[in-house]
Request: fold
Amino acid sequence: MIILKNLTKIYRGIKAVDNLNLQIPQGTIFGFIGPNGAGKTTTIKMMTGVLRPTKGSISIDGLDIAQEPSQAKRIIGFIPDRPFLYEKLSGTEFLRFKAGLYGMEGARLDEDISDLLNLFELSDWADELIESYSHGMKQRLIIASALIHKPKVIIVDEPMVALDPRGAKLVKELFKERARKGTTVFMSTHALALAQEVCQQIAIVDKGRIVASGTSKDLEEQAGVMGDLERIFLAITGGLASG
Amino acid sequence: MNIFRLLITPRFVGFKNNLKGPGGGRRVKILTLTVVGILFWLVLFFLFYRVLAYFSSQEMIGDVLARQLLAMVLLIFFSLLIFSHIVTALSNLYLSQDLELFHASPATLTEIFLSRSFYTVIDSSWMLIVFGLPVMMAYGVVYHASLAYYLSLIYVSIPLMIIAASLGILVIMVLVGFFPAQRARDIIFFLSLIVIICLYFLFRFLRPERLVNPDSFVSIAQYLGALKSPDSPYLPSQWATDLLWTRLTRYPGSQLLNYLLLWSTALALMVIDIWMAGLIYFRGFSKAQEAKRRTHVGRRILEKTVSALTRPLGPDTTSLIAKDVRTFFRDNSQWSQLLLLGALVVVYLYNFSVLPLERSPIKSVYLQNALSFLNIGLAGFVISALSARFIFPAVSAEGNAFWIILSSPVSARRFLWSKYFAYLIPMLILAEVLIIYTNYLLRVTAFMMVLSSATIFFLVFGIVGLGVGLGAVYPNFKHENIAQVATSFGGLIYMISSSVFIALVIVLEAGPVYTILSAHFRGEAVTHVQWVLITGSFILVIFVQIVAVKKPMAAGLKSLSRYEG
Reply:
């Protein structure tokens, strides 16, 4: 379960995240959508312990990220929007390094790495340097590295960037399957069709505040607009009126 | 501790993979770097060996001078180490791209801090080994030092390094804590100012010009006294000097106190750093994640000047140059080096202003003109060093955005020549200021003034051509930090080529200058044969200059054409 309480981040007087409150049950795929600059990445950075909130608290599976950062981070798999990769490491070396950060080692790890590389169709490139990977392959490696320690919570910022339809389908199925097994997925995305397809709950954030939240049905009611998520999103964030 | 080991592995594994990579070119690179490194070591070793051997042959003051030189070298190393740690700690602890990965992992703050501090020490301290070892070896050889001296080099340099590192890291943590988030520009500006002020005081403190003129001291004792400054019992470099000097001269006194001082200070500072990191490091890192706010001071003036100067070159070239100027001044790591450049120029000019020419045993007028001639080479090397830092990386500076140039209607030729002209003008102005002002300080003849101004003017065309051209031959669009480009293999090739080019021009001009000046001072006329030789030399100089511009630019264009369609 993820609980955000009165979460606020102020940058030089500007409220990037304004008193955010969320409660996401275990095993839920949660969509976090909003226009550019709405505060999505800032929220995610605070949830993963990379950024200090100005106010409020974050609890991941009962662990406060500010009080018990190491324990909380141990159960999070983070896929950032602009990930960093060591270009001079091979895919296998990177996964082994990432696993090491989560205290994993031994023969079992080699099997896990091999399984993940197979799953993401990177086996043929496992020992090649990352610098020779395509954009999509790098994204698949990043997602694989976030899953290596079998996290209870996956926090992902724009998961489908650079993925081909096959890769995108794989990731969608993977998230659904993990959620069925109890993993909570917190996903920020601009791909509204993706959010509508896989998310059980969605929050629309604008100017740092949650302006609507719930299931697709709840959002329809709140927006007073029927139909796809794009129409609901535009109605709530003002795009429909201005457009 | 396992996590700490893990956190420092990516760079070592990456380095190993880089060495293992395919291609014979890599082997050539490693071989060239090794040969150049060994040559550099040998040159530095023999330079110090000669100086120290000369000192040791002087009774009374020889040892005093050698000891003072050691104190000076260690003080300079120590100061540079602190500054270097400040700069590298800023990027390693706060700005590196992989930090997000680490902070999102379960590694504790102390583990992250220690691993990044380790990187900082490695990044900053290689200089001590590269430059320090030949100097210390020269001392050992001249003073026939025992094994104890060589061992004490290890015992002394480790705590000295830890002290410098801890101080540098502490300074940056406190600065990042005080300044608003992501104000690295202000921090570096502040630090650069500190360095300039320190350099100034160090020079004024040492007053090296007095030492060449013992007559200005009333007594030997006063002269020796002057030689001994600066001498401070509170400086760690002084403890190191005392320790090493005792080992060198096998002075029987105990150095336990200095050992204890060095090691206890090092360990105490380490503890303080870790404690402070627990208090303020994460707050600073979190601030560094926040977006920058731009300052607008001086922006309009700069943009209008650039636009006016480049208008005749056409809108595409104007746009390219304006982009370069904007990105240069917005990139903290780039523009802040202008301040260091300022310090370099000040020190360079200051050295000329304090030369005691009138007290020299050599006839002053010869010395002035000889110095002026050598000054062409020296200024050329200063311009080369600056070009290595600013011009050689100009093509690589496009980075991941190079596709914008490739996909635009601007040809590679126009792109490269716009870089050339953008850097040529400021470099020409700087070179002429350096030469004319130093010539004015030296009070040289009109002939030397014209010759050196003209020579440096044309040298700059070649130096810039080599910089831009070779920068395109060895581009690195995937750099993490533009400073890496200057210190790459291509950067080394550029420095070698540029040095050879300058030396060639100087050698070709030396004969004619000697002939003309000798004839002038003897009141004789230059013979017809001599005029033919002089003309031949100058034609060769012109030829070398043309080659230095055309060849590298052509090679650069050929290299860039590989990226086009």
User: Anything to note?
Assistant: Residues 84-150 of chain A form one domain.
